């Protein structure tokens, strides 16, 4: 696979996210899911001088950003992730089902590719697990919190 092409796509994804964030930030965690039929993504970022992450889809309401402008950038993010997915597929690599792209304001980045079959998984449950794994977030909703506790117990049971 062409590393220059991959780096160009990574840059495009990061630049779209940076354009979406309306304040100074320290670190970003992007989640993306791409298949033949599905495209979804969201991200969290840590604002400068704040230890609580901001959820990307809250940006329009928190900052008075035009929802259509936000959607345009969000679709651009999805397009970049889809382009990356097809780059894998078209170059004989197994296409991933989800990706976590972590980068900071110094330019350091890390990418985790996941190849798990997501066809039977619930979107909300996947988000809960991802948010806990990468951000340490515990859901406020009691049912979601119980789901996470049960999930974490099942992981512990598998490792024992």
UniProtKB/TrEMBL annotation:
InterPro entries to which the protein is assigned, alphabetical: YezG-like, YezG-like_sf
Domain of life: Bacteria
First and last residue of the signal peptide: none
One matching Pfam family: YezG-like
Protein name per its UniProtKB record: Antitoxin YezG
Organism this protein belongs to: Aneurinibacillus thermoaerophilus
């Amino acid at each position: 696979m062409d590393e220059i092409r991959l780096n160009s796509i990574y840059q495009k994804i990061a630049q779209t996210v940076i354009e979406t964030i309306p304040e100074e930030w320290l670190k970003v965690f992007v989640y993306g899911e791409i298949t033949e039929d599905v495209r979804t993504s969201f991200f969290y970022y840590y604002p400068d001088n704040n230890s609580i992450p901001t959820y990307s889809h809250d940006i329009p309401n928190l900052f008075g950003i035009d929802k259509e402008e936000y959607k345009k950038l969000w679709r651009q993010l999805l397009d970049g992730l889809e382009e990356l997915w097809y780059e894998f597929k078209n170059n004989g690599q197994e296409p991933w089902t989800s990706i976590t792209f972590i980068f900071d304001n110094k330019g350091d980045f890390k990418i985790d590719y996941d190849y798990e079959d997501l066809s039977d998984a619930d979107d909300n449950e996947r988000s809960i697990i991802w948010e806990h794994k990468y951000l340490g977030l515990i859901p406020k909703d009691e049912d979601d919190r119980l789901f996470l506790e049960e999930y974490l117990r099942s992981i512990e049971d598998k490792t024992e």
